[in-house]
Amino acid sequence: MSSWNRFKKYYYQNAALGLSLDISRIPFPDDFLASKEGAIQKAFADMGALEKGAISNPDEQRMVGHYWLRAPQLAPTKDLSNEISSTLNSIKDFAAKVHSGAIKAPGGAKFTHVLVIGIGGSALGPQFVNHALGQPGIDKMAVTFFDNTDPDGIDYVLGTLSGHLATTLAIVISKSGGTAETRNGQLEAAAAFKAAGLDYTKHYVAVTGAGSKLEQTAIKENWIARFPMWDWVGGRTSELCAVGLLPAALQGLDIQAMLDGAAAIDVVTRSTKTSENPAALLALMWYYATNGVGAKDMVVLPYKDRLLLFSRYLQQLVMESLGKELDLNGKVVNQGIAVYGNKGSTDQHAYVQQLREGVNNFFVTFIEVLKDRSGKSLEVEPGITAGDYLQGFYLGTRDALSEKDRSSVTITLPDVSARTIGILIGLYERVVGFYASLVGINAYHQPGVEAGKKAAGGVIALKLKLDAALKSAAGKPQTAEALATSVGGNPELTFKILEHLAANGSVKKTPAANVFDSTYSA
Ligand SMILES: O=P(O)(O)OC[C@H]1O[C@](O)(CO)[C@@H](O)[C@@H]1O
Fold this sequence. Notes:
Its EC number is 5.3.1.9. The protein is an alpha/beta fold. It contains 18 helices and 16 strands.
């Protein structure tokens, strides 16, 4: 079959959504879709049960309800429907009051800036949407983020808020309410408010789960407002609950259009007719391209600057959902699909060299956006605009990769708008769910992230022991090994901690010819 005929055969377009999907450049044989029909029907059934409120996250014994956020009437109980709707109303109401000045900064001025403090799913969606849809200088409020526990990163963001803290609203977002990085950001921001002579509690809002530590603090300190985060919404699928909607509404973005876009793609991706279901087609392409075992990585290449952060957002959505040691039967499978990417054509001048000529261990997801900009474009050459070049580079790169048997899919969108961002989010949430069914894993838990958190706790405990040992040694210089022995700690960790303390002036290091003979004292 010619590539044009194959393109026509496998081109999916939904004119009402403005969404197209080209899967023709994944080299699956013509009988592949039929051979997986039973498996994808099972995925549809799993998804149907999930949407009806089944315990689809068995390890945590939780329902998985992110699809109800944009269709509250589909939630399994009236109480849940009401809670979703009333939370949405209170988000809109809160944002309107902040914009009008009915809720204002303690000095009496309107709030002008938003500082979001969160990490992982409590930051990636809001950051993606902020960058995709924001119009700096025009937005109702400027939104910035603390998404780490890096002191210098915190100072950088505080620097951008310099002179604006008095009118900054800080939203602390944490589903669990116990995430260390977020707690640290909360304390660092509070210290910055205090240093500026401001009462931070009059600037703080919480988005968190009922009964969490964060909620308790917000209640005790009487923060301005609290919004719920439900246990049936996972962090990586939380963009369309208060986590993402509150910052977006404050920024002045059309959150209803985002919800409507997600609701519209949900309707389409509930179809049990595979050829009419773009999420099913994509999940099947992931399966084919990766052999159902993550054999290839997913390179996400949007040809649109506004979608720059989509690959980071997808990285968590896909890798935290699919990267699992065990399948649902407890068998070791070490599943997952690695995701990375940035944007085209920028990446053509970076890593695309390897994509075409190096190891063939990936498939590309191109995202094409038809609308170049609002308004007319300059001709950079007679009859040619910068946008023509952007499309040329996308089509050229796609062909250059195909020539070398590098697989790709393309998603085409009419524009980057609140509605199409909702469509993208909804589309990929469902692809991940279908793919998880195809490979038989729980997409909705993340047991693997606990190990690192636990180990970090051990490092903090060891640091405190070392502080005490250095103090009681009253200035006596000691090697890392000697100090490790004295506190019963791991010598390598001790060495690393001491080097960090020395670099920050908290201990005195006396270097030696052999680095491990260096000594440290209080
Ligand atoms: O919203 P929380 O509870 O602070 O969690 C932040 C992120 O941390 C994780 O739990 C992983 O550690 C993610 O799943 C989550 O999005």
